[in-house]
Amino acid sequence: MYVAVKGGENAINASHKLLATKRRGDSSVAELTVEQIQQQMPLAVDRIMNEGGIYDRELAALALKQASGDMIEAIFLLRAFRTTLPRFGSALAVDTEQMQIERRVSATFKDLPGGQILGPTYDYTHRLLDFSLLAGCPEHAEKIQQQSEEAEADPSTPDSLQCANAFDWIAKAGLLVEEVDSGAEPFDLTESPLEFPASRSTRLQNLIRGDEGFLIGISYSVIRGYGDSHPFCGEMRTGRCEISFVPEELGFEVCIGEVQLTECQMINGYSPSQKEPKFTRGYGLTFGRAETKALAVALVDRALQAKDYGEEVSSPAQNEEFILYHSDIIDAVGFVSHFRLPHYVDFQSELHMLRQMYAKQALNKEHQS
Questions:
Q1: Are residues 261 and 327 in the same domain?
Q2: Three-state SS annotation for 109-175
Q3: 337 part of a folded domain
Q4: Residue-range definition of the domain harbouring residue 80
Q5: pTM above 0.85, yes or no
Q6: Whether residue 316 sits in one domain with residue 181
Q7: How many CB atoms lie within 10 A of CB 206?
Q8: How many domains does the chain have?
Q9: How far apart are CA 247 and CA 123, in angstroms?
Q10: pLDDT tens-digit profile of 180-222?
Q11: Which of 106, 323, 344, 362 is least enclosed, having the fewest CB within 10 Å?
Q12: pLDDT at 2 over 60
C-alpha cells in the first residue's frame, strides 16, 4: 500500500491547517455534526461501513466528516482504525430467516408468503429535484411531520416481521442446485492475505469490501453478456438480525446486539454443463441499506462460480484473480494516487537513460557518415 512520503515539515503542517479550514467551510454556517451525518446520510454511512469492514455507524459518520465527504478517504480511515482493534472471538453465523424485516421485495415472485414490503426506497420516485429540501424551508418540515404521522397511523404498515426465504419452495421442488456447507472454517481476509484459488466465502468477503462502482460496472458487463448470466432477483430483504457469541467462560450462546443487513439472492439460469438442469444462485449480504451493492455482489458471485459449474472462463467477471485483486478500493487508490507524489529520482533516471540513447544514436549516425 502506497502512503504519503515525507516532505518539507513546514509545508506539510501548513497543508494540514489549510485542510482543516477547508473542511470547516464558512464559519458563519452551522457546523455539520457527526450525529446529523449518521441520521440524515444513512446510505453514505452504510457504504463506508461495508468497504471499511466494520459495523459502527458513528465511526463511519465521523470518517465521512473528517474526509470532507470523500468516500474513499473515509473508507481508508475506517479500515485503518479497524486494524487497531483487538479480536475477542468470532460470532456465530447470522440466520437471515430470523431477520426482523423492514423491506422485502422480489422481482420473480409476485405473491410472496408474507407479502412484498416496499419500505423506504427510491425505486418509485421521480428523478426531479425537490426544492422543498432547501435549508430553512418551512413547507418541507410540515410535509415531513405530516408523512410521519400518516405512517404511524397506518395499520397496514408493520414495524417488522419475519418471513421464510422465497427460495425455499424452489429448493424443496428440486429445481435449485443444492449448496452444502462443507463445515470448513471460513477464511478470514482480515488476518490472512488473499490466496488463489479462493473459496466462495473468501470471494464474498472480498466483494463486500470491494468498491461499489467497480462492482456495479463488472455486474453490468455480466448482464450484457460478458459472463453468460441471465439473472432474476429472487428476493431482496433488509432488516435487523441478532448477533450471537459464545464466551469461553460461559460456554453457551448469548445475544450481544443486532445489526441491520441487506441480503440479495439472485436466481440464475441453469448451466449447459449440468446433467440435470436446475437454477443456480448468486448471493450478496451487506451491512445496512446497500441494495445496489448487494445486487452487484450477487451477480459477480455467480459469475465467479463459472469453474464450479464447468463453464468456460471467457470474461473479466469470471476471472477471480482479476476481480478480487482490482475491486479493493484502498489498494487501487493507493497505487493510482501515488503518482501525484514526488518521483523526481525515478524520472531523472528515465530522462538520463533516454538522453544516453539519443546520444548513442547520434554517435552511430556520425560514424556511418
A1: yes
A2: CCCCCCCCECCCCCCCCCCCCCHHHCCCCHHHHHHHHHHHHHHHHCCCCCCCECCCCCCHHHHHCCC
A3: no
A4: 31-86
A5: no
A6: yes
A7: 21
A8: 2
A9: 43
A10: 777 777 788 888 888 888 888 899 999 999 999 999 999 999 8
A11: 344
A12: no
